[in-house]
Description:
The chain is of the alpha/beta class.
Amino acid sequence: MAESNFIDYVKICCRSGKGGRGSAHMHHAKYNYNGGPDGGDGGRGGHIYLRGNHNYWTLLHLRYERHIFAGHGGDGGDCRSHGADGEDRYIDVPVGTVVYDAETGEYICDVNEDGQLVMLLKGGRGGLGNWNFRTATNQAPRYAQPGEPMVERTVIMELKLLADVGLVGFPNAGKSTLVNAISTAKPKIAGYPFTTLEPSLGIVPYRDGQSFVIADIPGIIEGASEGKGLGLRFLRHIERNSLLLFMVPGDTEDIRHEYEVLLNEVATYNPQLLDKQRILAITKCDLLDDELQEMLAADLPSDLPHVFISAVAMKNITELKDMLWAALNSESNKIAATLNRESIIQTGKDISTFDFPDDDDIEYIDDADIEDLEEDC
């Protein structure tokens, strides 16, 4: 898919349906002129749902669908006829989509499972017909309830990729080269920084037909958590990973310092990311001999699993996959993943961090405008 087709946040206007009016009809029939009230209830307005769909991995399909309206409820009729319910609208989104209010930045909901349904906006209830208001002292009520009004809201949908392993590293650390070597994904690879401008997912085959998913995000730089470079926009894609694989080139002057800088950026962006398991991969080890590798390994943190790899020469790639698979399936990682899911606290969002084009300003459209557009067509 082309780079321009990766859309990880959109702004759309959603509107639920209004409830139908209740009927104030009085029954009239031959030989029964005072039949009494028989007005039916109005139908409810349509709801708007979000539905997780694993067949989507980007919000591109919503980029140009700026208005999503549910159907209005039908009015009640005579003979206690109930009005038709408004048509519900289902918005299919990728798994890992978070929704915020576009005006206040308030957190609304989160879709993190395939097939999960979340009601985004509730349709208005239909009004009661005069049949419901009859009493012994008021046997012919000539009034009924109007339907509840519709609910209109502009929301921002933000995608956070779901993957087992997330790659963290500076530009030109060899992340895309590794993904290309061990998975089915084919990201762009070049000799200049920031070659990767969009996240990509790759399926890594393992033994006995098993596999896991790896996510490659654009390289981050020091200060990315404060908005520098591309990191602030894409750091959110590692929030849902079970394991973080830090990648530092072997020709770096101070591998430990570079790792600590990356870890600090991740922690500054979201302190909860420190609870995830971490593995350090020193890339481009084909440039290092065994003696130099031993010297560099002695300076690394003792509690941090590490491996020297070369994606170009396919050196120690099998060992890396074994380490990743063992960490992903360890009991401690499963317990931590469960605790993290239960302890995640979603908060509001600073909507100024979203860089929308000028044409993303949404104007509300009322029913009269829609009718005029239909007549013009």
